[in-house]
Amino acid sequence: ADGYFVVGNVPAKFSATTNNTLSYRRAILSDMQYFLSLTSKEDIKNIDTVRYQINILEDRFPSIYVSSPNSELVVDEDMKLPLGLEVGDDYGFSKMTLFYRTTKSAGNSATSKQYSTYPLSVAPKTLIQALNFDIDLTKLGMKQGDELEYYVEVWDNDGITGNKSTKSAIF
């Protein structure tokens, strides 16, 4: 038995596998029509072929929403930032990061022009997630009276065209 995967007029031969089956593997990156051309061991061809259509769904950008705090927040003496996030993507995530900088310093710590980063955990295969973090601001070098500016960026796991990211608003 022989078989071909035919796109337009270009045939690609199936590979013979065990159990009297045929196999074909190909990456499909755009919409296409195809049909299968088969020949039996007795050299009988299928003459009435069915044409199939494949439509590609493009990978979308991930979404992110900071649900809390949603305005200015005065942090308690425990120096914890309660951070609530909602993230979503059509295929999943590769990473998520908190970007932060000191905008006003109350003590000896200097204000910063550059953002520093702090990794946040995100489940790679869960498409919609509500996440809550208690960020220990002392681990970020913050002191009582400092003011912090931050945003969160999340990346999808697009292995075809490269990971795409989305940033939250700046708080």
Task: Provide the descriptors you would attach to this structure in a database record.
171 residues; mainly beta
Describe this structure in words.
- By secondary structure, the chain is mostly beta strands.
- Helix content is about 0%, strand content about 50%.
- Strand 1 and strand 2 (about 10-15) form a beta hairpin.
- The model has no long low-confidence stretch (mean pLDDT about 90).
Give the SSE layout.
Blueprint: E1 2-7, E2 10-13, E3 15-17, E4 21-23, E5 32-39, E6 51-54, E7 63-68, E8 80-88, E9 93-104, E10 116-120, E11 128-136, E12 147-156, E13 165-167
Antiparallel strand pairs: 1-2, 1-5, 3-4, 5-6, 7-8, 8-11, 9-10, 9-12, 12-13
In short:
The chain has 171 residues and is mainly beta.
What class would the helix/strand composition place it in?
mainly beta
Overall helicity? under 10%
- The number of distinct helices, counting runs of at least 4 residues, comes to 0
Mean pLDDT: 89
